[in-house]
Amino acid sequence: xxxxxxxxxxxxxxxxxxxxxxxxxxxxxxxxxxxxxxxxxxxxxxxxxxxxxxxxxxxxxxxxxxxxxxxxxxxxxxxxxxxxxxxxxxxxxxxxxxxxxxxxxxxxxxxxxxxxxxxxxxxxxxxxxxxxxxxxxxxxxxxxxxxxxxxxxxxxxxxxxxxxxxxxxxxxxxxxxxxxxxxxxxxxxxxxxxxxxxxxxxxxxxxxxxxxxxxxxxxxxxxxxxxxxxxxxxxxxxxxxxxxxxxxxxxxxxxxxxxxxxxxxxxxxxxxxxxxxxxxxxxxxxxxxxxxxxxxxxxxxxxxxxxxxxxxxxxxxxxxxxxxxxxxxxxxxxxxxxxxxxxxxxxxxxxxxxxxxxxxxxxxxxxxxxxxxxxxxxxxxxxxxxxxxxxxxxxxxxxxxxxxxxxxxxxxxxxxxxxxxxxxxxxxxxxxxxxxxxxxxxxxxx
Length: 446
Prior knowledge:
Elements: E1 10-17, E2 26-34, E3 37-43, E4 54-57, E5 61-65, E6 67-72, H1 75-78, H2 89-100, H3 105-121, E7 124-130, H4 137-145, E8 149-156, H5 166-174, H6 176-183, E9 191-197, H7 205-218, E10 222-226, H8 230-240, H9 244-250, E11 258-262, H10 268-277, E12 280-283, H11 285-290, H12 298-304, E13 308-310, H13 323-338, H14 346-353, H15 355-360, E14 377-381, H16 393-399, E15 406-411, E16 414-418, E17 421-422, H17 427-445
Parallel strand pairs: 1-4, 1-5, 6-7, 7-8, 8-9, 10-11, 11-12, 12-13
Antiparallel strand pairs: 1-2, 2-3, 5-14, 14-15, 15-16, 16-17
Helix pairs in contact: 3-4, 3-17, 13-14, 14-16
């Protein structure tokens, strides 16, 4: 597609371009950026960028959409990484809560910054944050320093280990319009506010109904854990006599604005309900395997028409914010579970980590390199000992590449990382302040 050189702010040339969204790979491709949007994508013969403000020679590199992490917990989980291993979900949550109840805004600010730095350096340009009943404001401040695209979901609960935040949850829901006015579509539209009822075992029916009412009133996205593991399924059978999906459906809760994280315990009727309601799934294969939560019936979900995106979950249960790990593990575990090595091809995994993940978190403006889409993209070096020779670009990205192969990260047309350096911050200070805050939190909590 032709583009006027005088209109281009940033151009990548000589690149292997993966536009995603079912568009074909482009050898010796060009990506042109105007302002905060993609202006043109195509072969070098089609696009004149000679007068662009800045031209980047991407020879030997891949230029593709930034990864979209459609279910994660950054601020809280950065503080919990490696704290407790080798236990089941409910027991793990109990220990995590001992630290979460002692969170303070200063600690959350440095944790947020550290998580944003890790994501930028791993090529993530957009993420779906699920908070656990603490203030979102520290992360909104951190996002002013490292301006990724994000949906920040306020977490609510009223029972179980989360019972202490019951009053806060109801008060916040009752006045959620204040949060919307303060933060929704801030940061030039990058930051959205969402609603994150924690899970069917930690939120009662009245809270889920209230969340649905608020979401409908303000046209907000919802983000909840659902059918995550065997312990949740047992609780729901004993408490309500049904599955988590059927229970939420009976409340009129499930709609296309819902991202349901995990969904490892689905029967055929559950999958049908998700498909009919347009509910989307954030698939976290590494975390699910680590906590023995089960494996999403991915093929059945896709065949039913359910949108499924890849996600890392948080560093407490996955230990890293690395979509390369997630793609590789997803490919391997689903081939093993289905006994079909032809299922979930490398290109499918790349789609799930970009455009499908963007759909799964209701941020369709990103995840693809196409004219008019947001200019959220990354440049990856494939000239590495662990990736060469590159017979197939998609295979190299999914099964050989690593987070530290990302050389440049761009969000809204602005370069956030170049040559592995995150611009505009002092990473050494962030690491030091974060480490100090995390150790202090541990010492006063356990």
